[in-house]
Amino acid sequence: MWIPTEHEKYGVVLASFRGTVQHGLPLEIGDTVQLLEKCEGWYRGFVHKNPNAKGIFPCTYIHLKNAHIKNKGQFETVIPTEDSVITEMTSTLRDWGAMWKRLYVKNEGDLFHRLWHVMNEILDLRRQVLVGHLTNDRMKDVKQHITARLDWGNEQLSLDLVPRREFSMVDPDEISVTELFKLMEHRHRKKETPAPASTHHLFVHMKSLMSSNLGEELEVFFHIYDGRENRPLSERFFVRLNKNGVPKSPEKTERQCTLFVDLGSSDLRKDVYIVVHIMRIGRMGAGEKKNLCSVQYRRPFGCAVVSIADLLTADSKDDHLLKVYACTTESEWYQIHENIIRKVNSRYNLSGSNTGLAVSLQLLHGDIEQLRREYMVLFTRGVSITKKLGFSDIIMPGEMRNDLYVTLEKGEFEKGGKSVARNVEITVYVLDIDGQVMKSYVAAGSGEPGGDEYHSFVLYHNNSPRWAEQIKLPIPVDMFRGAHVRFEFRHCSTKDKGEKKLFGYSFVHLMQEDGRTLPDGTHELIIHKCEENANLQDSSRYLKLPFSKANLPGNNQAVKGTKESFWITSFLCSTKLTQNGDMLDLLKWRAHPERINDSLSKLKEIDGSEIVKFLQDTLDTLFGILDESSQRYGLKVFDCLVHIINLLQDSKFQHFKPVMDTYIESHFAGALSYRDLIKVLKWYVDRIVDAEHQDHIQQVLKATEYIFKYIIQSRRLFALATGGQSEEEFRCCVHELFMSIRFFLSQENKITSPVTQTQAVFLRTFPEVYGELLKIFTVREVAGFVRETLGSLPATAHAECPLEAVKLHCIAKTVESQLYTNPESRCILLPVVLRLLQAHMQEQRDLVMCARILTSMLSLIRKDDSVTTEPVVSEEVDLIVDSLLVVLMRTILEITNRPQPAGTNMRLQFQDITGEFVACLLALLRQMSDKHYQQLLQTFTSKDDLRDFLLQIFTVFRILIRPEMFPKDWTVMRLVTNNVIITTVLYLSDALRKNFLNEKFDYKVWDSYFYLSVIFINQPCLQLESFSPSKRKRVLEKYGDMRVMTGCELFSMWQNLGEHKLNFIPAMIGPFLEVTLVPQPDLRNVMIPIFHDMMDWEQRRSGNFKQVEAKLIDKLDSLMSEGKGDETYRELFNSILLKKIERETWRESGISLIATVTRLMERLLDYRDCMKLGEVDGKKIGCTVSLLNFYKTELNKEEMYIRYIHKLYELHLKAQNYTEASYTLLLYDELLEWSDRPLREFLNYPMQSEWQRKEYLHLTIVQNFDRGKCWENGIILCRELADQYESYYDYRNLSKMRMMEASLYDKIMDQQRLEPEFFRVGFYGKKFPFFLRNKEFVCRGHDYERLEAFQQRMLNEFPHAIAMQHVNQPDQTIYQAEAQYLQIYAVSPIPENQDVLQRDGVPDNIKSFYKVNHIWRFRYDRPFHKGTKDKENEFKSLWVERTTLTLVQSLPGISRWFEVEKRELVEVSPLENAIEVIENKNLQLRTLIAQCQSRQMQNINPLTMCLNGVIDAAVNGGLARYQEAFFVKDYIVNHPEDGEKIGRLRELMFEQAHILEFGLAVHEKFVPQDMRPLHKKLVDQFHVMKSSLGIQEFPAYVRASPVHFTNGSPRSSCRNSVPNIISPDGARVVARRSPLTYPAVNRYSSSSLSSQASNEVSNITGQSESSDEVFNMQPSPSTSSLSSNHSASPNVTSSAPSSARGSPQLQDKQKHSRENSCLSSRERPVSAIYPNPLDPAQRATPHQIGDTTLPRSDPNLSAPDKVRTTFSSRSLDSVKEVNNTQFSDTVGKLLCPPVPPRPPYSGSSAKTMRSQSPLPTSRSPQKSSLPPFTPSPTESQSAGLVSNSPVLSGSYSSGISSMSRCSVSEASGTEATTGDHPAHQGPTMPNSVSSGSDELIRRENKTPPPYSVYERSNPRRPVPLPHSLSIPPSVDPPALPPKPHQLRTSSMKLVSTSDPRRADGVPHVPRPRPLPRKVSQL
After folding, report:
1. Cis ω on the peptide bond leading into residue 1905 (within 30° of 0)?
2. Among 409, 642, 800, 1743, which lies 20 to 30 A Cα-Cα from 434?
3. Helix (H, G, I), strand (E, B), or coil: what is residue 539?
4. The whole model's pTM is what?
5. What residues contact 1569, with CB distance under 8 A and at least 6 apart?
């Protein structure tokens, strides 16, 4: 049976448990579990990291830990009873663990490894703590290390700052908010700015001396030198080097390393140097022979100098190589370092080019103890300490030091009877009182131990040597008395044995007889002569002699007059000895009572360091004098005491205050002194008001604290001694003293008055007295003293008075004092404190101090919050609230609105006080109970006051919520703030309801309340979803979800508003929407219904809720783009509101609004998800297009629409989709007009006129069209701009624009353009974004992108998608699947622009643009067999399923892909298929022959292969198979309706034979020698083929049809009228339209061979990139040329045949076949892809023909199918003009029987055809009335679109009747019909001009250009007539059409009278502004 656990509540998992048993809970080792129940060895409970999953697990897997339980019962919380540091460590390491893994994933290796080390370190420390074997000190250190590392990790991982007190985390509920703020700030400051160290130390490590001329041992001396004062700052550090220049004792690091200690901050300046002197130990001369002399001397070697300032900038661990300099003259050695510093180059030089001193120098900061901790290795390894000369900036008590420094300055010596000067060496000895040499007390410096003697260096032949060598004599204090120093002088001979001969000595006593030591300074010593053998051992013999010339008796002139002298400088640094006689006199006052007065007077002149040395003795002396003769010396002793007390205030001696405190507590014995001290103090205070000079009195008052200490201690001693006698008398004295003080404080004086300054001095020290008074008086008494004293201060004071600040300072210290902590005294002091504080805060003065006082006050209140003190605390809170709450809020408002000061320090201080005031306000509000709020609200007498208060407090709360209020990682502080705010607002909302509703409604207060609630809920620190699970749990346990609480209150308040809700509609829609987007389900459920409420009230007010809708939509966009909202929200919004409006009368419009908003959310969410991805891809662009269209079409939000246009534009630019970028920007461009209307600044556009912005957009678009190689579109914009410039007479810009236009024409002709592939993509399944889901698109591929690459790209964009392997339409299961399916295959474009493509003589460069631009429709063919398949002849049953896809917008456009709007499916019969195949092959042959003829083909192989393929296939049964299938009697009988088609097929066969014959003739001419046999074989096979077809000779109509090839250059054609070689007569031929296609064939040329137009060229020549796999026809004996064209593209599916994109597509609209090419992309000739334009000379070959017009191919084929032009502009149809009539007749009889129009035949799928008229004239230059020129590619010339005959052939009618999209007017971009009026047929306006005038009229009428609006619903065009029925053209052909801009003026005139597009000639109406282009039209 399961029993609830009592004590077993918390445990840790010891081993992982899989939880495989029933109800088992899986556990991982280390998890912490909470135990709920127990049963027979099993526990039931949950893991803390997932409390929702409960289960059972074995007891043996759990280690139990002690824990205490909060909220026992169902919702109990279990907290382990372990050290809080351990608990924090455990939870922190868990949080870090997850983040640490993420660092690895993010590849942040550095932090990953650092964190790993720290985590391991913390775990080790944790083990040490858990074991529990640490001492208290060690435990403290370990915890400090742990918390330091935890804080470091939290900071690195951007986690929260943890407030701590003594290493433990602080519970914010258990301390006041002000304390919490102080803790947080302290930790933040510590993290931010470490306090600059005041002491510094220099670490020196001597490495080596590098020099080429060593060989002697060296001594190196370092010291720090002040270049400004020219004196050493430190003693010397001494290192011995061996002969190799490295330290002699490498194992003893203390002999190589030193620390120059106690450098002050003032010593780190540029003119402080490290000076290095180097001595060599050896011979006198550096170059002397070794055997000359064995005696060694110390001789100067070199000097190096480096500035300390250089070390501040250098890397701390740098090794320095110091240059070593030598003296030019040895006598200058003593000042070589000064010369180097001053750069006196003449006095020194480098001692050697490669001599250098290698030294490591490092500056360390902080006190020495800190360094010992931080650089432990340094101190344990060994380092010598080199002290400063003199004391450091701060003298520490207890510091023992007794060093005498002696500097050997110089000497003056006589020659001593020698001809040359002496080589003098000094030997120094220290001797004690007995005359014995003191051992080890002569030190050359730190680093080496002291010796018994010291030898100076020797200067060669110098009788006035200057050494400046410093030695240190560390003699103990007790040995100083009677000791002396002896200096012996020897001459060092360089001859013979090099003896050192003694010739004199000097000495000096270290202490005088009166106890004073040798005074600091320079001493001139007497040199006593002596001989070498003189006995100096007996010191008593010479000690009686005089030693210094300064203190010689006056009568001893003989000694004074001697020239020989020796100078030394001494400097004593001692904490025990003094050189001051006055000090000694005072201490020995009893020996000389008569000198007391004098000694007391001189005390003030004695150096402070001397006084503090003997502090206790001095104080004893003073109080001894006071006790013995107080009347006589009382005042003087008091003054001396004041002097000493104030001396200790100096920073240098402040550390001696504890020494004085100890003295007072332990050694002071003046039990009677208090009377004298009080009396003298009162005497001074009473004289303050009248005294002229206040300086001395101010000094007295500065010492008040210690005077009171002495008074109180003295009284205590007296009371102790006498049993408390004279108590009343003492109290009376103190009361009198305070009365005097109050009197002087109450004086009102001028600001500058000395009394005011004295008052300030007293107030500064007064708070220090409280503690002393409390030792004798009660708390209430002392509080009374303080209250009366502070209350006596003058109330009114000037703001600039210094006394005001001091007053406040005094109050601050009072509040922080021990006195104020007692509740009893607080009650007495609080009113005084509050009065002063309120006055200052109201005037905004001294706010820093005010904040400090408030903080202290409120910190104390929290501490005393217990049951016993509850009434007291409540009363205090009352007082503070009454006095300060409103002032405090006003202060916060003012300081947050004030501009922040510029300086960093000022700004920091500014932020500090803001934070402190905020903490105070929060602390105060947190202390307020219900009663306090009621009292507060009752204090407001009028509604206005209450209103102002509420507005103020709401505003302050809004400020507190600001993110910048606290640093980012202060989450703890923010949560406390929010908790206080929500509590306060709940209290105040009641007041709001009671006082400001119904008739008393106040909009401003309610608005402020709503606004506060909204920003409260939206705070980042309350978004629990973003927290880690453990942090979220902690917050929820402590505070709950404060957003939900606020949301519920907000809803409740809203419901109370009633009809006043209307005031907040639509203003609050945005803020409330923001609240509902917070991802908290409860909050959403509460808040979403408010929108229903808003809709309802808006409906009541205005009958609709347009305002609500508009605001919702506007706000949704900005909020969702910030990352708010999700799919759940969309569903919730939809369901809640739909449910709410079910019963409303306005239900329908409500549903519509909700649907609109929901759809917008779908798109916005998709958009946001797409934008999160890294690179720009189709998904991002498609999503943006979807959203942009939605804003335009459904919401009509122009500004949002324009914003998204620019977002889309940026995406395109980033993806380098320049063409799409241009189309996108055009959307905005077309919304603008050429007007001067001013436009505001918007996005990145400046404020400018509409004209300027449109001009800028035009130029940008042209630039992008240029980059995207879409030059034709750029030209149109250039023209429009040029028109504008011309109308403004801006010829400069007009010229530039024309040049730009010209450059674009050049690019069209000169640059190569790649034709893109097109792919159909289907997105199936519910997992796709909304804008793609279950839709199909056609996508324009990138350059060089084939199907495989495109498919891979799409799968990369949609990594979870599955590629479908078939092309059939998917079924519903795929549509509804929870997955992503992609179906991709290639499709062929169907060009719209037939006009250009069918025109002869238009170069390929121009045609290529129209084949792949402005494409609405695409085609995909799939071959299949219907019925039984004939194995002998598969063509009988081979049908083609043709799918035509129509897009919503043409490609290219604003996106690379557009959705398919319509899908049409038709089936092409085997016969029609056969016709298409042969047509395509004929066209391919023509193209290759033409290219070969015009020498465009550098290699004849493509033609050879093509001829071989066709002839070989024909021989092996290709055409014969067609004959067998369709010409047999059975077929003709069974399919009577196909008669015409069969005739057409026969025609095409004959035509193919004719082309082959001509091709072989051309081939023969160009075939190389090695391929002649193949050619012969082809000729033979061709004859076999002819005979197999039954052709003996061609029918008349075939013979008559010209085989005409063009070379692509109309100019060369025009210039050249050489007769055709093939044509027997070479006569001029008039171009005709040939019946190339079916079924509604234009029969105006009787030759089927003329069907050469541009319909299939791209596939045949293989120049279109999109046609590479279409006609993969290889010469093969088994496959006919026909059958090879039937298989679908391998791009679609492996099983589908390869002509999927090549076979023609017969549809209800234009029917046309997209090419069957025989060359794959890999086999295409280079010349086909990169045409080689010939120069004019090459063009004018004998093979060129005069006629430049290509006969049109099937006019019924849609423009997209006429894809590729040839590179030749000659026609295959060269025939005599005389044959035309015969040809026409034949055609008329054979193909065009005069029957009425009839419907299309049933077998044909070609139901929607369009016909085009032929170009009725030749362009022969002899006959041309205008000079020849190249027509513009953008003029969309429609010369061939206007009929020349009124008669209509019946075979067209049915093909035209259903024409809807592809009228030529739309192909050329116009929006009106162009052929319904006779204007085009008049002799004055030739047909060829019509397109030019159309373009002109279009531009004049501001109709959008063809690329922009591609209308698909134009009225149909007039039907051109067959050529056989048309009127024969005149001999002179009409002139070529000029460019539209050349005819601008004439056409303008024409338009002004009659519009050529109007049949009725109605006068021209002023042109309207164009409608903004719809996105759907693009």
Report:
1. no
2. 409
3. coil
4. 0.62
5. none
